[in-house]
Amino acid sequence: MTKTKWSFYNIWNESLENREERELKPRHNIWASELGGSLVDRYLKMAGVQPSNPPNPRSLRKFEAGNIWEWIVGLVLKRAGILLDEQEWVSFQYAGLPEVTGKIDFVAGGKPDWDKALMDIKDFGFPDFITRVASDLVNELAQKYPLGMDKIVLEIKSCSSFMFEKYETTGLPADHHALQIFHYLKAKNLPEGHIVYVSKDDCRLLEIGVFNPSPLEELYRKDIETLFRYLKAKEQPPLEPAIDFNREQCKFYPNWRVMYSQYLTKLYGYKDQLEFETKYRPITAKWNRVAKRVIDGAKMTKLNLEVIEEIKKDYVDFEEVVKGVKK
Length: 327
Hints:
Distance between the termini: 79 Å
Oligomer: single chain
Number of domains: 2
CATH class of the largest domain: Alpha Beta
Mean pLDDT: 94
């Protein structure tokens, strides 16, 4: 009798890619996870326009990798006895504007039985390093907050080590992540939330606080109002620029709102993300090299001066930004 050959990795990979996608239909509500994203993409999605570039297998696997990390964090919170709620749908709506809805990852806090929490962690069968982390978490929280802890919202975001180090260096979350968690705080009338970044490459964690009330509300409301204005007029918003200019750091990046657009081909004419990156990564690298030379006060070559003029065609305020960074 011939044994049938089988493969674990084939089953694993195919299962990861076999993700059931939500059917795209016209809708009136805004998803919290879309806040701060490309206006034109959001306009088309809310109109029910089918994407020209739906998530590819690699993107689907990255989504599931994020879900795995979220699940691990949830388990640690639960066994530590500080998980109060998870995956709760919440909504908020300003008068006359679209409703914003979304699902909170976790709400944590309270006053657990710390001894029971340590026992639950020990008995669960976590990998050694997760057991250490969870036990250390309980011991530290028990020492610092013997009377219990305030309720906070936790939003878990996995990312590459490159992006992790950017968040760690600046101490700032991505704008769209901050707006997303602010929505949850606004909807639940809670004062504090934390965005927890997990580096998928080396398991490091970074936690950045977001608060309510805060100046973020102005950006939150403006984002909703701007999208609503286009929706009401049935006017497609303008396309995103290919290059994003971070004026606080005087750095250029290929615009993620274009790069990850599900309408990349339809709106911008690029076959896929690789074609877009192949064109713009060398350009932004060149612009960043010259910008750094200008900031450092290095002697400008003829080529450097040509690059500066190239930058100023798209960003007329480049020299003013440089002066600000120098200060």
